[in-house]
Amino acid sequence: MKKIRPVSDLRNNFAEISRMVHETQEPVFLTKNGYGDMVVMSIEAYEAKQFESEIFHKLKEAQLEARSTKVRYSHEEVFSGLRLKVAERINKDYV
After folding, report:
1. Domain range for residue 34?
2. Nearest partner of 30 among 3, 12, 5, 11, judged by Cα
């Protein structure tokens, strides 16, 4: 269930709101004059949302690419390529 609080609670009950967003990892929606104004969330929750968004966009991009070509790669082809790139990066970093 969404947590909705007046924006004045951010000033008057900051510690409580901070505790709430860290414990639940859920955002708190703040209202001003009865209308939605802001969302407050922990940095961890924000970063998780950013990561999910990035993954979603990459999957959508891959889906569009898959629709535009008949080329398919096996599991072994993908991971062989990844292993090669990782090995190249490691060698480059240690040279």
Report:
1. 3-41
2. 5
Backbone angles phi, psi at 94, to 5 degrees: -95, 0
Q: How far apart are CA 91 and CA 73, in angstroms?
A: 26
Domain count, the chain: 2
- 2-56 pLDDT, tens per residue? 999 999 999 999 999 999 999 999 999 999 999 999 999 999 999 999 999 999 9
The pLDDT tens digits for 78-95 are: 999 999 999 998 887 776
Same domain, 61 and 28: no
Is the CB of residue 31 less than 8 Å from the CB of residue 38? no
